[in-house]
Amino acid sequence: MEILERDVVVIGAGPSGLTAAHRLQQAGLSVAVLEARDRVGGRTWTSVIDGAMLEIGGQWVSPDQTALLETLDELGLETFPRYREGDSIYLAEDGTRTRYTGEMFPVSEQTQAEMERLIGLLDTLAAEAGATAPWTHPLARELDTISFHHWLRQQSSDEEACNNIGLFIAGGMLTKPAHSFSALQAVLMAASAGSFSNLVDDNFILDRRVIGGLQRVSERLAEKVGNDVVLNSPVRTLRWGGEDGESTGVTAVSDHVTVHARYAIMAVPPNLYSRVSFEPPLPRRQHQMHQHQSLGLVIKVHAVYAKPFWREDGLSGTCFSPSALVQEVYDNTNHGDERGTLVGFVSDEKADAMFALTPEERRQRILDSIAGYLGPEALNAEVYYESDWGAEEWTRGAYAASFDLGGLHRYGPDQLKPVGPIYWSCSDLAAEGYQHVDGAIRMGRQTAERILAADRASSAATRG
Question: Most buried residue, 66, 185, 410, 463, by most Cβ within 10 Å?
Answer without folding.
Answer: 185
